[in-house]
Design brief:
The protein has helices at residues 2-42, 51-60, 62-97, 99-112, 117-128, 132-156, 160-168, 173-210, 216-225, 229-257. 85% of the residues lie in helices and 0% in strands.
Length: 264
Protein backbone atom coordinates (compact mmCIF):
# COMPACT_ATOMS: atom_id res chain seq x y z
CA UNK A 1 0.00 0.00 0.00
CA UNK A 2 2.81 2.42 0.87
CA UNK A 3 4.52 1.80 -2.49
CA UNK A 4 1.25 2.50 -4.27
CA UNK A 5 0.82 5.76 -2.36
CA UNK A 6 4.36 6.79 -3.27
CA UNK A 7 3.70 6.08 -6.94
CA UNK A 8 0.50 8.12 -6.78
CA UNK A 9 2.34 11.02 -5.14
CA UNK A 10 5.06 10.89 -7.80
CA UNK A 11 2.47 10.85 -10.56
CA UNK A 12 0.65 13.83 -9.05
CA UNK A 13 3.96 15.69 -8.64
CA UNK A 14 4.94 15.04 -12.27
CA UNK A 15 1.53 16.14 -13.54
CA UNK A 16 1.72 19.28 -11.45
CA UNK A 17 5.21 20.03 -12.73
CA UNK A 18 4.08 19.57 -16.35
CA UNK A 19 1.09 21.87 -15.82
CA UNK A 20 3.37 24.43 -14.17
CA UNK A 21 5.83 24.35 -17.07
CA UNK A 22 3.01 24.72 -19.59
CA UNK A 23 1.56 27.65 -17.65
CA UNK A 24 4.98 29.33 -17.55
CA UNK A 25 5.39 28.94 -21.31
CA UNK A 26 1.93 30.35 -21.98
CA UNK A 27 2.59 33.30 -19.67
CA UNK A 28 5.96 34.01 -21.31
CA UNK A 29 4.42 33.80 -24.78
CA UNK A 30 1.65 36.22 -23.75
CA UNK A 31 4.25 38.70 -22.45
CA UNK A 32 6.18 38.49 -25.72
CA UNK A 33 3.01 39.09 -27.73
CA UNK A 34 2.16 42.10 -25.55
CA UNK A 35 5.72 43.43 -25.99
CA UNK A 36 5.54 42.94 -29.75
CA UNK A 37 2.21 44.76 -30.07
CA UNK A 38 3.32 47.62 -27.78
CA UNK A 39 6.56 48.13 -29.68
CA UNK A 40 4.75 48.08 -33.02
CA UNK A 41 2.36 50.72 -31.71
CA UNK A 42 5.20 52.96 -30.49
CA UNK A 43 6.98 52.43 -33.83
CA UNK A 44 10.33 53.71 -32.55
CA UNK A 45 12.91 50.93 -32.57
CA UNK A 46 15.58 53.13 -30.97
CA UNK A 47 13.32 53.42 -27.88
CA UNK A 48 11.49 50.10 -27.76
CA UNK A 49 12.46 47.44 -30.29
CA UNK A 50 10.25 44.43 -30.88
CA UNK A 51 11.32 40.92 -29.79
CA UNK A 52 11.63 39.98 -33.46
CA UNK A 53 14.03 42.88 -34.08
CA UNK A 54 16.09 41.87 -31.05
CA UNK A 55 16.35 38.28 -32.28
CA UNK A 56 17.37 39.52 -35.71
CA UNK A 57 20.05 41.70 -34.12
CA UNK A 58 21.30 38.76 -32.05
CA UNK A 59 21.67 36.73 -35.22
CA UNK A 60 23.39 39.56 -37.10
CA UNK A 61 25.86 40.19 -34.27
CA UNK A 62 26.28 36.57 -33.23
CA UNK A 63 30.00 36.46 -33.99
CA UNK A 64 31.19 39.40 -31.82
CA UNK A 65 28.60 38.69 -29.12
CA UNK A 66 29.30 34.98 -28.67
CA UNK A 67 33.03 34.92 -29.40
CA UNK A 68 34.25 38.16 -27.80
CA UNK A 69 31.82 39.92 -25.47
CA UNK A 70 29.96 36.98 -23.86
CA UNK A 71 33.19 35.15 -22.86
CA UNK A 72 34.57 38.42 -21.40
CA UNK A 73 31.47 38.94 -19.26
CA UNK A 74 31.32 35.29 -18.19
CA UNK A 75 34.98 35.40 -17.12
CA UNK A 76 34.31 38.42 -14.90
CA UNK A 77 31.15 36.82 -13.57
CA UNK A 78 32.82 33.48 -12.82
CA UNK A 79 35.82 34.95 -11.02
CA UNK A 80 33.67 37.39 -9.05
CA UNK A 81 31.21 34.66 -8.07
CA UNK A 82 33.97 32.31 -6.90
CA UNK A 83 35.55 35.05 -4.78
CA UNK A 84 32.13 35.97 -3.36
CA UNK A 85 31.41 32.33 -2.49
CA UNK A 86 34.73 31.96 -0.69
CA UNK A 87 34.44 35.29 1.12
CA UNK A 88 30.76 34.82 1.97
CA UNK A 89 31.23 31.30 3.36
CA UNK A 90 34.27 32.39 5.37
CA UNK A 91 32.44 35.33 6.94
CA UNK A 92 29.37 33.18 7.68
CA UNK A 93 31.51 30.53 9.42
CA UNK A 94 33.39 33.16 11.44
CA UNK A 95 30.19 34.89 12.53
CA UNK A 96 28.63 31.58 13.54
CA UNK A 97 31.72 30.52 15.49
CA UNK A 98 32.15 33.74 17.47
CA UNK A 99 29.36 36.03 18.73
CA UNK A 100 31.95 38.79 19.17
CA UNK A 101 33.03 38.50 15.52
CA UNK A 102 29.38 38.45 14.49
CA UNK A 103 28.81 41.79 16.19
CA UNK A 104 31.92 43.21 14.53
CA UNK A 105 31.42 41.85 11.00
CA UNK A 106 27.65 42.06 10.56
CA UNK A 107 27.40 45.90 10.57
CA UNK A 108 30.30 46.14 8.10
CA UNK A 109 28.64 43.63 5.76
CA UNK A 110 25.38 45.55 5.87
CA UNK A 111 27.14 48.90 5.41
CA UNK A 112 28.91 47.60 2.30
CA UNK A 113 25.54 47.30 0.58
CA UNK A 114 24.73 50.97 1.09
CA UNK A 115 27.56 52.01 -1.24
CA UNK A 116 26.09 53.05 -4.62
CA UNK A 117 27.57 50.74 -7.23
CA UNK A 118 27.50 53.38 -9.95
CA UNK A 119 29.52 55.67 -7.66
CA UNK A 120 32.20 53.19 -6.59
CA UNK A 121 32.67 51.44 -9.96
CA UNK A 122 34.44 54.44 -11.62
CA UNK A 123 36.82 54.54 -8.65
CA UNK A 124 37.66 50.86 -9.20
CA UNK A 125 38.43 51.72 -12.82
CA UNK A 126 40.75 54.54 -11.67
CA UNK A 127 42.47 52.26 -9.16
CA UNK A 128 42.79 49.11 -11.26
CA UNK A 129 42.42 50.38 -14.82
CA UNK A 130 40.22 48.95 -17.57
CA UNK A 131 41.38 45.39 -16.91
CA UNK A 132 39.34 42.56 -15.49
CA UNK A 133 39.83 43.25 -11.78
CA UNK A 134 37.89 46.51 -11.63
CA UNK A 135 34.81 44.63 -12.90
CA UNK A 136 35.46 41.66 -10.62
CA UNK A 137 35.47 43.92 -7.56
CA UNK A 138 32.11 45.40 -8.56
CA UNK A 139 30.73 41.87 -8.88
CA UNK A 140 32.10 40.83 -5.48
CA UNK A 141 30.72 43.96 -3.82
CA UNK A 142 27.23 43.11 -5.06
CA UNK A 143 27.17 39.35 -4.51
CA UNK A 144 29.01 38.47 -1.30
CA UNK A 145 26.31 40.01 0.93
CA UNK A 146 23.43 37.59 0.15
CA UNK A 147 25.79 34.62 0.40
CA UNK A 148 27.10 35.70 3.80
CA UNK A 149 23.76 36.52 5.37
CA UNK A 150 21.83 33.57 3.90
CA UNK A 151 24.41 30.94 4.87
CA UNK A 152 24.75 32.47 8.34
CA UNK A 153 20.97 32.22 8.77
CA UNK A 154 21.26 28.58 7.68
CA UNK A 155 23.78 27.89 10.44
CA UNK A 156 21.51 29.55 12.97
CA UNK A 157 18.55 27.46 11.80
CA UNK A 158 20.16 24.30 13.18
CA UNK A 159 18.13 22.98 16.10
CA UNK A 160 19.77 23.50 19.47
CA UNK A 161 18.23 20.26 20.79
CA UNK A 162 20.09 18.20 18.20
CA UNK A 163 23.39 19.88 19.09
CA UNK A 164 22.83 19.28 22.79
CA UNK A 165 21.98 15.65 22.09
CA UNK A 166 25.24 15.11 20.22
CA UNK A 167 27.17 16.87 22.97
CA UNK A 168 25.79 14.38 25.51
CA UNK A 169 27.34 11.62 23.36
CA UNK A 170 30.71 13.36 23.45
CA UNK A 171 30.57 15.16 20.11
CA UNK A 172 32.97 18.04 19.55
CA UNK A 173 32.13 21.42 18.04
CA UNK A 174 33.65 20.19 14.79
CA UNK A 175 31.30 17.19 14.77
CA UNK A 176 28.29 19.39 15.45
CA UNK A 177 29.31 21.79 12.70
CA UNK A 178 29.72 19.15 9.99
CA UNK A 179 26.92 16.77 11.04
CA UNK A 180 24.20 19.30 11.91
CA UNK A 181 24.97 22.84 10.85
CA UNK A 182 26.39 22.14 7.39
CA UNK A 183 23.46 19.91 6.27
CA UNK A 184 21.04 22.45 7.73
CA UNK A 185 22.73 25.35 5.90
CA UNK A 186 23.05 23.50 2.58
CA UNK A 187 19.58 24.49 1.25
CA UNK A 188 20.27 28.09 2.30
CA UNK A 189 23.59 27.94 0.45
CA UNK A 190 21.95 26.90 -2.81
CA UNK A 191 19.32 29.63 -2.39
CA UNK A 192 22.14 32.14 -1.92
CA UNK A 193 23.92 30.88 -5.05
CA UNK A 194 20.73 31.18 -7.11
CA UNK A 195 20.37 34.77 -5.91
CA UNK A 196 24.04 35.56 -6.45
CA UNK A 197 24.19 34.34 -10.07
CA UNK A 198 21.98 37.04 -11.62
CA UNK A 199 23.44 39.63 -9.25
CA UNK A 200 26.98 38.72 -10.33
CA UNK A 201 25.99 39.07 -13.97
CA UNK A 202 24.46 42.47 -13.20
CA UNK A 203 27.63 43.50 -11.38
CA UNK A 204 29.81 42.47 -14.31
CA UNK A 205 27.57 44.33 -16.76
CA UNK A 206 27.60 47.49 -14.61
CA UNK A 207 31.38 47.38 -14.39
CA UNK A 208 31.65 46.96 -18.16
CA UNK A 209 29.11 49.70 -18.77
CA UNK A 210 31.11 52.24 -16.75
CA UNK A 211 34.54 51.33 -18.00
CA UNK A 212 35.69 48.44 -20.20
CA UNK A 213 37.00 47.51 -23.61
CA UNK A 214 34.93 44.35 -24.04
CA UNK A 215 31.94 42.58 -22.55
CA UNK A 216 28.19 42.66 -23.03
CA UNK A 217 27.77 45.74 -20.83
CA UNK A 218 30.34 47.61 -22.90
CA UNK A 219 28.69 46.44 -26.12
CA UNK A 220 25.25 47.59 -24.91
CA UNK A 221 26.62 51.05 -24.06
CA UNK A 222 28.26 51.31 -27.46
CA UNK A 223 24.98 50.45 -29.18
CA UNK A 224 23.23 53.13 -27.12
CA UNK A 225 25.57 55.80 -28.46
CA UNK A 226 24.49 54.68 -31.94
CA UNK A 227 20.76 54.87 -31.01
CA UNK A 228 20.44 51.18 -31.87
CA UNK A 229 17.63 49.99 -29.59
CA UNK A 230 17.77 46.37 -30.72
CA UNK A 231 21.56 46.41 -30.24
CA UNK A 232 21.09 47.67 -26.69
CA UNK A 233 18.54 44.97 -25.84
CA UNK A 234 20.36 42.09 -27.56
CA UNK A 235 23.13 41.78 -24.89
CA UNK A 236 20.52 42.18 -22.14
CA UNK A 237 18.44 39.31 -23.52
CA UNK A 238 21.58 37.19 -23.85
CA UNK A 239 22.54 37.91 -20.23
CA UNK A 240 19.04 37.00 -19.06
CA UNK A 241 19.16 33.70 -20.93
CA UNK A 242 22.55 32.85 -19.42
CA UNK A 243 21.33 33.71 -15.91
CA UNK A 244 18.22 31.54 -16.27
CA UNK A 245 20.27 28.65 -17.62
CA UNK A 246 22.80 28.90 -14.78
CA UNK A 247 20.05 29.08 -12.16
CA UNK A 248 18.43 26.00 -13.72
CA UNK A 249 21.71 24.07 -13.51
CA UNK A 250 22.14 25.04 -9.84
CA UNK A 251 18.55 23.93 -9.21
CA UNK A 252 19.30 20.51 -10.70
CA UNK A 253 22.43 20.15 -8.57
CA UNK A 254 20.46 21.21 -5.49
CA UNK A 255 17.75 18.65 -6.23
CA UNK A 256 20.35 15.90 -6.39
CA UNK A 257 22.30 16.90 -3.29
CA UNK A 258 19.51 18.18 -1.01
CA UNK A 259 16.97 15.41 -1.35
CA UNK A 260 15.37 16.18 2.00
CA UNK A 261 14.32 19.74 1.12
CA UNK A 262 10.58 20.21 1.29
CA UNK A 263 10.08 17.19 3.53
CA UNK A 264 8.55 17.53 6.97
Amino acid sequence: MSIRKQNVKRSVYRNGANIGNLSALIFMFALLILWQLSAMKVDAAYILPTPVQILQKLWELREPLFTVHLPATMLVTGIGLLISLGLGLLLAVVMDASPIMQKCIYPVVVASQTIPTTAIAPLFVLWFGYGIWSKVLVTVLITFFPITITVYDGFRAAKIEMSELLMTYGATKRDIFFKIKVPCALPYFFSAVKMAIPMSIIGAAIGEWLGAQSGLGYFSRRMMTQLDGAGVFAPIVLLSAVAMLAAKVIGIVEHRLVKWRGES
